[in-house]
Amino acid sequence: MPVEQKGEKSQPLYFVNAWVDYALIGGGSILIFTLLRQIYTTDRTPLVTSLGFYLLWIVNWPHFSATSYRLYSSRDNIMQYPLTALVVPWLVLAAVISSIASPEVIAPIFIKFYLVWSPYHFSGQTVGITLIYARRAGFQVGAFERFCLSGFVFGTFLSSTMRGEVEKGNGEYHGIFCPSLCLPEWMWTATQAFMGVFGILFLALAIRWCIQNRRILPPIVLVPALTQLVWFLPDLTYPSFAEFVPFFHSLQYLLIAWAMQLKEKMDREKIEPSSRYVAMETLRWGGLNVAGGILLFYGITVALWLFQRGWNGTDAALCLSAIAGGVLWKSLPKSIVGWAGLCYAVGVVGWLTHHAIVSNDAFWPLTFGVVSAGVQVHHFFVDGVIWKLKRKTVASPLMVNIDEMLHARPSAAHAPLVPAGVLGPTPVAAASEQRA
Amino acid sequence: MRGAAFLPVLVLYAASTLAQEPQPKLAPQSIVMRTAAGDLVIRLYPEVAPLHTEQFLKLARLGVFNGIHFYRIHPGFLIQAGVAEDRLAPLTPEQTAAIKTIKAEWSSIKHRKGVLNLGRADNDPDSGATAFSIMLGDAPHLDGLYTIFGRVDDKSFEVLDQLARVPCEGTTPKTRITVEEAFVLEDEKALRSFQRAPVRNIADEIRLQQTRLPVPLPVFRLIALLTVAGLTLYLLGKRASNWTICACVLVQAGLAGWVMWALHQASAASGGSTDEKMPAAGAIFGLMIPVAAIAALSLVGTRWLSLRIRMSLNLLNVLMGGFALILIAVPMAQISTAAGVAMFVGLVSVIKLMGSFESYS
Q: Chain A residue with minimal CA distance to B290?
């Protein structure tokens, strides 16, 4: 039953402002979707694939790195999720190595696991973002609303996945072919109906809320679900756009992870709000994640590829010096020297990657494909654990607005986790209370 | 009467026309494709289509055609096969690297029964790679449009006739007709001494295919359903009872172990090598040991391990056990819809469960 929140009139609706939030949460996706279809092309042309690939470097891969950074950046975080932080990586590494060792038997099943999990993960994020904006808008999502929303969003995942699984051919990922589950055709039809029914129900509930509260529900609450539809509805989407879907998914993620990082660090280190802090921390966090993404995807692939091919003295020296560069950054994270070390490590990995690609070694695509899947599966694991909105420490900073970090607010700037009853209900504390 | 006088002339004319049709030289090598209906022996035309001949021999030697299937059967016209990406087992990097498009090689050879041509994109004659057609009858409208690079030998015609009888929906076979194995006979002598598999009735073979599984199909269906039931119990019982979860894990481990044993028995009975028959067995066995160990630890450690740790350990077990079962059962989806549905539900359930890690504190 939708209920209007009491005492939340001043709750900021956006992380930054309407323009930025709409653009990153789904407006950009819908705009590009329309432009590609109407003006450019629906085909996966070389220009499209190249652009999609470069966007992976600067947006998609950093979003994986951001998750790892969030989990591993402090001992407290690791101890809060010990199995996820300390056991899951080894499990994923074992799966990656087994897949490389057995490209015909284990790799296809591991890739299948990843290919099914990936759109499921996208759907989970869409539901989460919708819930965040619903709370910001004062639209309390009850169990039934949540059920309908999830039914619709996960219905898009089921429908798109099912479409691939009813076909009898093999799916392909970086040259690794995995068998279709050969599901019956009626299951695809059934999932489309499932998605449609829950979509209509959720829309009806939103309209009822508008009528009951004599208020228009801010459209941003519905944008994530609409975006999900554009991403996944099989009859709607097309190859050129599909190339950019991971980019748009990552943009959503980075907006929220960025706001969270700024807020948490500010609270933890008692930093005064200022535009300088926001700019410097954005640069530091952004740069670190771009480097982290390259090291995760190319660094691990290069290491496994070299292991497979056999090391020579130069390789070993380069790898050791790259590790030294990383250690230097870890030791001196705030100095130019530390950052130079990190840049050097990225450069070495880039050089070795280039060397591997031009050598045209047939094992490179297999290794890269399996490592990519492994890094992403690890991300899915970690994301499912660290972003639980039920946890106050997660949910509270998610109600932040950039203004709080740009300009000092004496009453609330450093007090997001103070119980509402002590200092009065700050917007953030009230939002947490609402979920309890 | 006057017409009858011309008849011998017409017959002679027709005979001379046929005689004028070029009879291309055959390569000494032959490619044998073993199917449920028998062996198709393919002879290649090295002078008419040297690039195609070289490429097909290379791919056959690398094993690219093992596990491909006949995806289009049009009685009286043609059958098509050879999409390497749709093989049962994925291509190895070496095989993938060997597959290249071949430039068309035109000739005046006609499309008659038994002739092979290379499939290609409609708008690009040089786009063919591995997919090919075998003609089931004369098709003059295709002459000059596709590269003809060989034919099946006369003894393979019976096999072709059997393949043409496979039940289809439209032109798509209802049952997957796989090239179980493809290999090269290197010269005429090898061909002469080659013992062909007997031609078999395809309807009987399709019926038999299901009983030739390593374990009977109903057993696999049962396993698939039990997997789903086990995962459902995990979902329902994750907050209720540690014992429920442990019991499910043990059932899962037991089932997987039993399937392994059955695979091993089937392999031993058929005289095939273990590696060939159950390549995943080692991996499954490797997974089952920690699964059983963790389940036992979780059961006996109720006093000194926190609930959070035990539940997380059990979830690890679900992941490993589920992965092992998926490893076994995904190939089953190719022939059993129930297995496919069960595996899909199982996969989604495992994925959903993974979000429950460390959420019991």
A: A91
How is B118-183 classified by DSSP, letter by letter?
Answer: E--BTTBTT---S-EEEESS--GGGTTTS-EEEEE-GGGHHHHHHHTTS-EETTEESS--B--EEE
d(C-alpha A24, C-alpha A29), whole Å: 8
Q: Which of A371, A234, A346 is nearest to A294 (CA)?
A: A346
Chain A residue whose CA is closest to B325:
A109
Instruction: Enumerate residues 60 to 99 of chain A having a beta carbon within 8 A of any beta carbon in chain B.
Output: 81-84, 87-88, 91, 95, 98
Contact A384 B357 (CB under 8 A): yes
Chain-chain contact of A175 with B93 (C-beta, under 8 angstroms): yes
Residue B332 carries which side chain, given as an amino acid letter?
M
Task: Say if residues B348 and B227 touch (Cβ distance below 8 Å).
Answer: no
- Which one, of B7, B289, B305, B236, lies nearest residue A94 by Cα? B289
B32-65 pLDDT, tens digit per residue, is: 999 888 899 999 999 999 999 999 999 999 989 9
In tens, the pLDDT along A165-185 reads: 887 666 778 878 787 888 888
Q: Is the pLDDT assigned to residue A36 strictly greater than 70? A: yes
Distances (CA, A) of A116 to A161, B108, B207: 7, 49, 32
What does the alpha-carbon distance between residue B347 and residue B318 come to, in Å, rounded to a whole number? 11
Partnered with residue A152 across adjacent β-strands are none
Q: How far is A54 from chain B (nearest CA, A)?
A: 25
pTM for the full model? 0.71
Find the Cα–Cα–Cα–Cα dihedral B69, B75, B76, B79, rounded to 10°: -10
Q: Which of A170-174, A337-341, A376-380, B7-11 has the lowest mean pLDDT?
A: B7-11
Chain B contacts to A (CB-CB under 8 A): 71, 83, 85-94, 96-97, 176, 279-280, 283, 309, 312, 316, 319-320, 323, 326-327, 330-331, 333-334, 337, 340-341, 343-344, 347-348, 351-352, 354-355, 357-359
Structure tokens at A108: 């296809």
Structural tokens at position A384: 């499912």
Q: Are B70 and B124 in contact (CB under 8 A)?
A: no
Q: Which amino acid is at A40?
A: Y
pLDDT number for residue A255: 94
Strands A171-173 and A176-178: antiparallel
B85 vs A179, A246, B81, B129, CA distance in Å?
10, 25, 11, 11
As a whole number of Å, the end-to-end CA separation of chain A is 17
Rounded CA-CA distance A112/A89 in Å is: 19
Give the integer Cα–Cα distance in Å for A94 and A306. 17
What confidence tens digit (pLDDT) does each residue in A385-406 have?
A: 888 766 777 777 778 888 888 8
CB B60 within 8 A of CB B54: no
The whole-angstrom separation of Cα B231 and Cα B225 is 10
- Torsion angle defined by CA atoms of residues A48, A54, A55 and A57, in that order, rounded to the nearest 10 degrees: 150
